[in-house]
Amino acid sequence: MSDLEIRDLLERHGIRPSKGLGQNLLVAEWAYERIVAASDLAEADHVLEIGPGLGTLTRYLADRAGQVTAVELDARMVAVLKETLQGRSNVRVVQGDILELDPQALISTGAGRQEHYKVVANLPYYITSRVLRHLLSACIRPGLLTLMVQKEVAERIVASAGSMSLLAVSVQAYGDPEVICSVPASAFYPRPKVASAVMTIRTYAEPLVPEEMIGPFFRVVRAGFQQKRKQLHNSLGANLGLPPDRIDSALLAACIARETRPQALGVDDWLGLTRALYQED
Fold it and tell me: Full-prediction pTM beyond 0.90?
């Protein structure tokens, strides 16, 4: 759908894209094709699409996947989707906030619980972290996520030890992220102020962090990054409420220097530190 066609469709429905909702609509056909190719879709796939907007990408997905469940927050866009997706029997549109919806319930079928699904989403910057946390911590996680996010956010997610962030650790504990391509601001209407990127996250069959360790693990990671410019023994001491000698002993047991800063640690380092801190609890 061209820029002109999008403007006409929006005008006919009396819609002006909401800056507050991060509504920058993708208009570049090549970008749609890269998203679909990265999603590696087959007829057996059930796709959970988040933020379908006007439904252009939804149609691409529906041509290749067996079922698409599209979750749209904006009721005005839902009215447009009824027009643009007319006749697509394998598409179901759900109005609601993905953060308040259970992914398992969304992708369940009448024949029973759906165990495998993929996510495709165009995520505004302000909810990217929360949506990823919601999906990756769900009872049934998607096997693959293909995301359009701010380029800077994509680069943070795929960072390696030395440049890690809380977001990077939170994602990499559950899957392997990869940046597919950059998408310039000119590929959207209205144009955002920043560049975007298409990225994928292939989730692991089991998270790198055992289920029983998830709570303590993220407690330690959040404590470490709460004061990320401080040395690790200081930031942990200030935010975990544990005696300094216990923190120093745990750092020694995990082979982590007291002076290390949190961005230097990968998922395995944080897991080793968590075990050292709480193995007696």
Answer: yes
